[in-house]
Amino acid sequence: MNNRDWLNFALSQMNSGQWFGFRKDFTGNERMSYENIIVHDSSITKPTEADVNAKIQELKDAETNKIAKKEEAKSKLVELGLTEEHLKALGL
Q: How many structural domains compose the chain?
């Protein structure tokens, strides 16, 4: 995923519904950036940039851990005697 994807993913995980968007008359180089976030729901306040960055890092770490656990599981299955063909049949 690129930075815009991570930003969108993090924001979507912070509150439910379509609570945010991005300014059409944007500033900076990218429309989809923290500085251009607008909040559509008056009951929600815009999270701080530090909070958004922390959420992005949390999600990246979770993805890294997921990949590592999958690789660990594959290694354990190979140790138990499964072949690459078996792993492919299991979708691994």
A: 1
